[in-house]
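Consider the tokenized backbone below.
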């Protein structure tokens, strides 16, 4: 059995964060573990409150996992503060996991800030260079490159610029671009790009899509796939999970993790 670790925030509504990640790991047949950075009171309508976990406790969770159940791959999601980002960076420098997927979560779909503005620079300096792959959505990529991204050509340029910050590969998700196609751009270095294109599914059940996608990439990397294959299979998973979602709650509903056939 392969092991995967998520370092992220808790979503009480179960659609995003740690809960989405662990469901995704389970449905990929990978043993899931968690380091909780923050607890959010959240549902499909929005975020009611956020309570961060102390830096000492974040570090202790990392120590507990890494010294006994060393993960084959790690995913990082909501890190919330500069201080938590720094302690995660310290833990990663100490334990040196081989494969890190960084989902630079900044703001929830319901427009609640999940990463302090002051933490952005630290995330870029300390976590981006440690990542095998970083998976920003369009808005997150815009914050990182400090300019607007409006089409696929601009996504390509932004991905190349983000790679210069020290991560090895970059996936910019285009779920939020105008138009009826969801196009994601994967940059693998030099002039090597792969495009993942799907018709946009007309649904409100897209809460936790970014978390689920990055966790699926992490599970696939843990199983030994290379980045290109890990993203391709994860894209099949997230598309199917959105397509087969059932309406739950009164807002942005969760995706469906019972979409079978990917836990090989
Ligand atoms: N309505 C949709 N139909 C099909 N794919 C979607 C839809 N919304 C998002 N996706 C896909 O889900 C994945 C997660 O993207 P996105 O929702 O942009 O991330 P985030 O939750 O971080 O904002 C991407 O592969 C994106 O293309
Ligand atoms: C605890 C927590 N972590 C991350 C997110 C953001 O999740 P994401 O997959 O980007 O989905 P939406 O916020 O866009 O639904 C979150 N909401 N909560």
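A designed sequence for it:
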């Amino acid at each position: 059995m392969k092991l995967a670790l998520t370092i992220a925030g808790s979503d009480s509504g179960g659609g995003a964060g740690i809960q989405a990640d662990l469901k995704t790991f389970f449905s990929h047949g990978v043993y899931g573990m968690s380091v909780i950075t923050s607890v959010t009171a959240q549902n499909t309508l929005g975020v009611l409150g956020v309570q961060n976990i102390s830096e000492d406790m974040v570090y202790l969770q990392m120590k507990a996992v890494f010294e006994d159940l060393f993960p084959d791959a790690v995913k990082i999601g909501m890190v919330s503060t500069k201080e938590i980002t720094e302690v995660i960076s310290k833990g990663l420098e100490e334990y040196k996991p081989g494969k890190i997927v960084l989902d630079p979560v900044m703001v929830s779909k319901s427009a609640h800030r999940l990463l302090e503005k002051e933490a952005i620079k630290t995330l870029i300096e300390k976590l981006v260079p440690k990542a095998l792959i970083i998976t920003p959505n369009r808005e997150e990529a815009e914050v990182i490159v400090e300019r607007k991204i409006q089409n696929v050509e601009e996504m390509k340029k932004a991905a190349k610029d983000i790679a210069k910050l020290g991560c090895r590969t970059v996936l910019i998700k285009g779920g939020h671009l105008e138009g009826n196609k969801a196009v994601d751009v994967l940059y693998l270095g030099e002039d090597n790009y792969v495009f993942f294109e799907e018709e946009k599914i007309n649904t409100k059940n897209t809460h936790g899509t970014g978390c689920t996608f990055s966790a699926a990439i992490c599970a696939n990397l843990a199983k030994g796939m290379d980045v290109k294959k890990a993203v391709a299979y994860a894209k099949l998973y997230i598309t199917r999970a959105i397509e087969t979602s059932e309406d739950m709650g009164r807002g942005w509903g969760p995706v469906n993790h019972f979409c079978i056939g990917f836990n090989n």
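The chain has a mean pLDDT of 95.
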